[in-house]
Amino acid sequence: MDGHNVLLSAFFFLAAAVAVVPFARRGGLGSVLGYLLAGVFIGPYALGLVTNAEDILHFSEFGVVMMLFLVGLELEPAKLWRLRVPILGMGGAQVVGTALVLALIAILLGQTWQTGIAIGMALSLSSTAIALQILNERHVLGTTAGQSAFSVLLFQDIAVIPILAILPLLATGLLDGSAVAAASDDGPAWLRALTVIGVVAGIVLAGRYALRPVFRFIAGSGIREIFTATALLLVVGTALLMQLIGLSPALGTFLAGVVLANSEYRLALESDIEPFKALLLGLFFISVGMSINFGVIGDHPVLIGGLVVGMIAVKLGVLLVLARAFGLPGEQNLLFSFVLAQGGEFAFVLFQFAAAEGALTSEVTEMLVVVVALSMATTPLLMILLDRVLRRMRSPANQREPDKIELEGHPVIVIGYGRFGQIVGRFLSANGVGMVILDNDPDHVEVLRQFGVRAFYGDATRLDLLERAGGETAKLFVVAIDDKEKTVATVQAIRERFPQAKVFARARNRDHVYDLWSAGAHFTHRETFDAALTMGREALVALGEHPFAARRRARMFSEHDEKMLADGYAVRDSDESLVKLSRQAREQLERLVAVDKGVTPAEKDHGWGD
Question: From CA 132, how far away is CA 465, in angstroms rounded?
Answer without folding.
Answer: 40
